[in-house]
Amino acid sequence: MSKATLGIIISLVSVVVMVGGVWGGQRLIESRGASAWKWLAVVLIVGSAIAGLLIPVPRLPIVNESVRNLFFHVPMWFGMIMVMLVSIVYSMQYLRRPSARLDILAHEAAKTGILLGVLGLATGSLWARYTWGAWWTPDPRLNAAAVALLIYGAYLVLRGSFRDDQQRARVSAIYNIFAFAAAIPLLFILPRISGNSLHPGQTGNPGFNKYDLDSTMRPVFYAAVIGWILFSFWLTQVSSRLTLLQHQHDDQ
């Protein structure tokens, strides 16, 4: 099998997994029944955190023991992307069938994504301090991530600038979709065409693959990714329930 064919297959599988994850995320956020998946999220996050601190890791120059932050920093970004995808799906559904419920779900999912993005920046900054010697550097990926979060921060400001509920919900839904469309190039495309970077995965700097993500780390990393994605859905479910109850109370 050629590399091109393998790349196409991997891309198709990734799309299927992402679509399934978004669909499943909506079901979990709106679920009212069994909470086995919440226990799974707790087990995966706590288990990966403990294992991440105890398992042996590759002895790499400069990175050294700080590579253990991989089990926290990167899964947070995975959770952010997934819950923001869920948010824009709710926004698109709102534009088709406007309702306060869909607006609230889109808003709460976006807030969860912003929270995870801030945590991702914080853990990344801490990692940079112990590997690059500075809390922040003029690195393309770091700056692009900060700009993407500022764009989403403007989403929160925008919502607070309207008095009419329906107008706020409609404008927010449109902005939410365009904010995600702007964030994807900033996070995944612009950094890769900006030249050399200190950040793993960029030109001249290998990502966390065969170079430093060995067979011992990989299961823990994947468990952490799943755990943080489930946690993002859980947090959105709790916050949206509270907001929906408040909305119902205000209508009475």
Mean pLDDT: 85
Distance between the termini: 63 Å
Count of helices?
7
Structural class: mainly alpha
Radius of gyration: 19 Å
List the helices and strands and how they pair.
Elements: H1 3-29, H2 36-54, H3 70-96, H4 100-131, H5 140-159, H6 165-189, H7 217-251
List keywords for this structure.
252 residues; mainly alpha; 7 helices; 0% strand; globular
Describe this structure in words.
- With 252 residues, the protein is mostly helical.
- The chain has 7 helices and no strands.
- The protein has helices at residues 3-29, 36-54, 70-96, 100-131, 140-159, 165-189, 217-251.
- The longest helix is centred in the C-terminal third of the chain and has 35 residues, at 217-251.
- The protein is globular, with a radius of gyration of 19 Å.
